[in-house]
Amino acid sequence: MEGIAIGLGLCLILALVSRSLSLPPIPFYILGGLAIGRSGLCLVEPTAISDYFTGLGLIFLLFYVGLELKPGELLQQRASILQIGFVDLQINLVVGFIAALALGFSLVESLVVAAAFYVSSSAIAFAHLIENRRVILRETETIVWLMLVEDMVLILIILLLHAGETSPIAILTGTVFLAGLFAAISQWGKDLIGGLLDRDDELPVLLTFSAVICSAFFASTVGIPEAIVVIALGAALAATSPTLLERHAKPFRDVFLALFFVFFGISVDFASSPGIVPIAALSILAIASKLISGVIIGRMTHGSSTAGIVIGSVSIARGEFSIILAALYGSAMVSSTIAALVITTSVAGSFAAQYSHLLKKHWTRFHSRHALTGIPSLLP
């Protein structure tokens, strides 16, 4: 328990520091873990207890992802959503995969790195939109849909990566069965579940915690990815009282997820990294690819490159989902690469999102000069 106590104390200090600097806490948690872990002072080592607590952070985050999925709305606007999602996927996943292969990773490792390269941090993105009072901007809805599509693709990637360990048919069959079972229980017991969640005693918290933990335990028992089952549970329960579920699950998510990031940093050994120069090049490429895809999406959906600058700036930061992929499927070299990628892009993305109005101004001047000189634009 000593390591847990040190980790929690470190989380509290780093949360205070990050909030005072108006920066996302995720890179601070990872850096703190690096400082006291294998790449730093070696004060703390991961244990079975720490693995259990950090695993709770992982599954509660994925439960949140399920609560936020809106299959009905996705189907209603599927044409435009699939269009922007395809651009994001085509540019960022492909670029990340090619870059990973160039760094010498295997095909499976390259897929993990590419997925981490592709998936933006929705937690950091939404926090910036709220803190910078940009929720009402026209680009915000596009950013929200973009993040939801990335979450859907993340589910498919997890299924694909897990298929190497278990029969794909067995995984799909079990997942579909459990998703249908959760949906049926949520539909038939909607009033009962809603009533239990709206109480003032301990029952709502016990119900939320037990549902998530028991579904994850059952998934691991039958050999289905816990991540997929917990997401399916969240999506099904979203038909009952999603606001209440989010309120009851949030404390577990916030505390255990902070520990997850710290202990991920503790477990990372930068002696296994491909080197500073390749990681720096990958990080710069990650920032550039999100800006480029954002500009293209902005032109497609809003007819404006400046709108695309906002979309790209807010989606630069990689975070929780990239770390999840590294923790679940990454080798030592993959984990160190993704850790550096998350730290770099989350900090760069924070400044880019905060000062996107300046980027828009410089972009406008850049295009104005091109228009005056007759030089064609670099992007459509």
Automatic annotation (TrEMBL):
<feature type="transmembrane region" description="Helical">
    <location>
        <begin position="309"/>
        <end position="332"/>
    </location>
</feature>
<keyword id="KW-0813">Transport</keyword>
<keyword id="KW-1133">Transmembrane helix</keyword>
<feature type="transmembrane region" description="Helical">
    <location>
        <begin position="227"/>
        <end position="245"/>
    </location>
</feature>
<feature type="domain" description="Cation/H+ exchanger transmembrane">
    <location>
        <begin position="12"/>
        <end position="350"/>
    </location>
</feature>
<dbReference type="GO" id="GO:1902600">
    <property type="term" value="P:proton transmembrane transport"/>
</dbReference>
<feature type="transmembrane region" description="Helical">
    <location>
        <begin position="338"/>
        <end position="359"/>
    </location>
</feature>
<protein>
    <submittedName>
        <fullName>Sodium:proton exchanger</fullName>
    </submittedName>
</protein>
<dbReference type="InterPro" id="IPR038770">
    <property type="entry name" value="Na+/solute_symporter_sf"/>
</dbReference>
<dbReference type="Pfam" id="PF00999">
    <property type="entry name" value="Na_H_Exchanger"/>
</dbReference>
<feature type="transmembrane region" description="Helical">
    <location>
        <begin position="46"/>
        <end position="67"/>
    </location>
</feature>
<dbReference type="GO" id="GO:0016020">
    <property type="term" value="C:membrane"/>
</dbReference>
<keyword id="KW-0472">Membrane</keyword>
<feature type="transmembrane region" description="Helical">
    <location>
        <begin position="276"/>
        <end position="297"/>
    </location>
</feature>
<feature type="transmembrane region" description="Helical">
    <location>
        <begin position="201"/>
        <end position="221"/>
    </location>
</feature>
<feature type="transmembrane region" description="Helical">
    <location>
        <begin position="111"/>
        <end position="130"/>
    </location>
</feature>
<feature type="transmembrane region" description="Helical">
    <location>
        <begin position="79"/>
        <end position="105"/>
    </location>
</feature>
<feature type="transmembrane region" description="Helical">
    <location>
        <begin position="169"/>
        <end position="189"/>
    </location>
</feature>
<feature type="transmembrane region" description="Helical">
    <location>
        <begin position="252"/>
        <end position="270"/>
    </location>
</feature>
<keyword id="KW-0812">Transmembrane</keyword>
<dbReference type="GO" id="GO:0015297">
    <property type="term" value="F:antiporter activity"/>
</dbReference>
<comment type="similarity">
    <text>Belongs to the monovalent cation:proton antiporter 2 (CPA2) transporter (TC 2.A.37) family.</text>
</comment>
<dbReference type="InterPro" id="IPR006153">
    <property type="entry name" value="Cation/H_exchanger_TM"/>
</dbReference>
<feature type="transmembrane region" description="Helical">
    <location>
        <begin position="142"/>
        <end position="163"/>
    </location>
</feature>
